[in-house]
């Protein structure tokens, strides 16, 4: 909540009625108002007057800036084609409109190159999906029902602090908390046990745990038989990964690995909680792919508070109608190339056709994208026209020809999906934009107008965009009505019947209406997308069954050249071109002809959405029944 006095935000505090945060801000936003009112904010359009990278600009008007941009984009389309224009954005302002509002429609209408936003989150999605057929996990608040909680590669007390009270509730009920992390963190210091493998060797430990679970017959045979494929292959594969071998790789005593495996397989409910740390490293996809095998082996998904819990953004995304929001129909049959954002440096230096114009918003790629020096080399090109829409002169903005002023969260309306809980958030503008700053949606409306474009959807207002994108959500309720109902799916894994049982959930909104004292909620949270089932979690078969899961070309596996178990260099090439047998698709033990790893290797790959659908039968040609997990049977050196 933001308190406003005389049009100026003077205080920001957590909403005590929020069902998850309960009034506590995370450290990142405790001083957010310092950012809003920083003397370094960009408040007016700027034009570069110095050398690229020097950071010298002069103030110009919005009309001048958009006219320059429009003239250049028209020239590029006329002379080289729209594919020579590259959009680049990420999650600077983490709102639905900020990340994908008018911008997607604008570039689709032009026919510009498309950006595959697959830097970190899709890595874990790819890994979990290859095992489960879906990237969904269970509601982290169900950890209160767990009796064993493995916090694997997450510093929960610091980076997910709002969840810690839930974990403490579980401990008060008798749960044991084990932290597995190469770093000793404040979470490790608060755990019942801390296990510290060497960096990059977690997968060896997972394989050894599976070795013990299988060799000592701690497997939930009934669950495995009904809901998985490839168990025999997995069992054969992990035979060589004894606790002793894993101990050599990880530095963790074999007896500790053995004891943990036994405890994990026998405790009910047993939960694994992980977050974004591992996916930011080499072999991140394999980390999650292997980790997801553990709850399937033990049948942990049977229990409420059992299974694998990670970011819940994939649940939130199911509310959003991407087609209505982004309007891919505006491509009008065109199929422009797709550029993987992690290969920006190559795109700016070696792409054919060459990138002539790049428009960057919601991102600072000079800091966040691999191969910084190659990105710098590309941005330094004299023939590259670069536009940056940002709140500050960032490392990237220093190379821009035109810099446009952007609003912060408290200056524009948006809807904010969450990663750590299942409530959708309404973000009301608390103050008017400072200076001449505009939101991401308004920025692209102005550029579209300057270009003389007449596609009506490029000029939809923000509320229209929100209503189009959230067709199943009562927007008026989301904005402030105190009580409403929302049908949602049950959380968890595939149930024995493979059917979904939706429930209607009523929730009291913690939204705080604007008061005469000028205290506004920004954001207010009022739409629950979570369900608290009364017993073991069950999700629809269509959610988790690989048979019904199509490959998503925006999800890219991470190529590897290092042994994922030992961290040592692998003799394989930097970008492996094939997927191992039994692992290419969650539904089959045959490799596909076009693989996720292969498609990851080229920064200028096939258009988004063109990945082939997975096979509907196992490798022997017999029809599948109700598969819900596929075991990775490749060596840990293979992505």
Fold and architecture overview:
This protein has 639 residues and is of the alpha/beta class. It is 31% helix and 15% strand. It is built from 25 helices and 24 strands. The protein has a six-stranded mixed beta sheet with strand order 4-3-16-15-14-5, covered by helices on one side. A five-stranded parallel beta sheet has the order 9-8-7-11-12, sandwiched between helices. A three-stranded antiparallel beta sheet has the order 2-1-21, with no helix packed on it. A hairpin with a 2-residue loop joins strand 1 and strand 2. The two termini are 44 Å apart.
Please give a quick description of this structure.
By secondary structure, the chain is α/β, with parallel strands linked by helices. It has 25 helices and 24 strands. It starts with a strand and ends in a 9-residue tail after the last strand.
Unreliable residue stretches: 481-628, 632-639
- Distance linking N and C termini: 44 Å
Radius of gyration: 25 Å
Average pLDDT confidence is: 78
Strand arrangement, major sheet = 4-3-16-15-14-5
Q: What is the strand tally?
A: 24
Taken as a percent bin, the fraction of beta residues is 5-15%
Number of helices: 25
Helical percent range? 25-40%
Structural class: alpha/beta
Biggest sheet, open or closed, and with what strands and sense?
6 strands, mixed
């Amino acid at each position: 909540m933001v308190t406003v006095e005389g049009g100026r935000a003077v205080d920001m505090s957590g909403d005590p009625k929020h069902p998850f945060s309960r009034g506590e801000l995370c450290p990142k936003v405790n001083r957010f108002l310092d950012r809003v009112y920083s003397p370094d904010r960009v408040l007016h359009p700027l034009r570069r007057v110095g050398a690229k990278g020097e950071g010298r600009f002069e103030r110009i008007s919005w009309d001048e800036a958009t006219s320059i941009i429009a003239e250049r984009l028209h020239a590029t389309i006329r002379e080289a084609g729209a594919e020579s224009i590259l959009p680049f954005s990420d999650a600077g302002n983490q709102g639905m409109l900020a990340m994908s509002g008018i911008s997607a429609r604008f570039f689709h209408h032009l026919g510009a190159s498309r950006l595959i936003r697959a830097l970190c989150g899709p890595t874990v999605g790819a890994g979990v999906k290859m095992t489960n057929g879906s990237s969904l996990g269970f509601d982290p608040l169900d950890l209160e029902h767990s009796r064993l909680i493995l916090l694997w590669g997450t510093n929960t007390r610091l980076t997910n602090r709002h969840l810690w009270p839930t974990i403490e509730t579980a401990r008060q009920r008798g749960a044991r908390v084990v932290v597995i992390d190469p770093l000793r963190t404040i979470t490790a210091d608060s755990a019942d046990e801390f296990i510290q493998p060497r960096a990059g060797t977690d997968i060896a430990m997972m394989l050894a745990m599976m070795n013990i679970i299988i060799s000592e017959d701690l497997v939930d045979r009934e669950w495995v038989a009904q809901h998985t494929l490839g168990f025999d292959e997995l069992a054969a594969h992990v035979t060589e990964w004894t606790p002793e071998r894993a101990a050599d790789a990880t530095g963790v005593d074999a007896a500790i690995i053995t004891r943990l495996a036994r405890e994990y397989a026998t405790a009910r409910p047993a939960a694994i909680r992980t977050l974004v740390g591992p996916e930011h490293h080499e072999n991140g996809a394999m980390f999650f792919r292997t980790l997801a095998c553990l709850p399937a082996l033990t049948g942990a998904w049977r229990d409420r508070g059992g299974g694998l819990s990670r970011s819940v953004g994939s649940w939130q995304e199911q509310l959003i109608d991407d087609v209505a929001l982004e309007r891919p129909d505006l491509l009008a049959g065109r199929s422009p190339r797709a550029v993987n954002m992690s290969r920006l440096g190559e795109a700016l230096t070696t792409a054919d056709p060459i990138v002539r114009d790049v428009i960057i918003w919601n991102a600072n790629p000079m800091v966040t994208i691999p191969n910084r020096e190659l990105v710098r080399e590309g941005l330094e090109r004299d023939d590259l026209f670069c536009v940056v829409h940002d709140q500050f002169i960032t490392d990237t903005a220093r190379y821009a020809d035109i810099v446009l002023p952007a609003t912060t969260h408290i200056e524009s309306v948006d809807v904010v999906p969450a990663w750590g809980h299942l409530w959708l958030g309404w973000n009301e503008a608390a103050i008017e934009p400072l200076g001449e700053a505009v939101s991401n949606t308004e920025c692209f409306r102005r550029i579209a107008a300057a270009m003389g474009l007449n596609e009506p959807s490029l000029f939809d207002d923000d509320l229209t965009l929100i209503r189009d994108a959230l067709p199943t959500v009562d927007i008026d309720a989301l904005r402030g009505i105190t009580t409403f109902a929302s049908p949602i799916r049950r959380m968890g894994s595939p149930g024995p019947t493979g059917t979904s049982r939706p429930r209607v959930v009523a929730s009291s909104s913690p939204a705080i209406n604007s008061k005469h004292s000028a205290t506004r909620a920004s954001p207010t949270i009022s739409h629950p997308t979570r369900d608290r089932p009364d017993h073991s979690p069950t999700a629809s078969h269509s959610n988790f069954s690989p048979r019904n899961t199509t490959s998503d070309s925006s999800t890219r596996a991470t190529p590897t050249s290092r042994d994922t178990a030992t961290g040592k260099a692998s003799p394989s090439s930097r970008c492996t071109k094939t997927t191992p047998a039994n692992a290419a698709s969650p539904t089959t033990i045959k490799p596909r002809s076009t693989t996720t790893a292969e498609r990851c290797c080229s920064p200028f790959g096939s258009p988004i959405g063109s990945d082939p659908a997975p096979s509907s039968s196992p490798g022997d040609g017999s029809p599948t029944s109700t598969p819900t997990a596929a075991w990775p049977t490749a060596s840990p050196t293979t992505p």
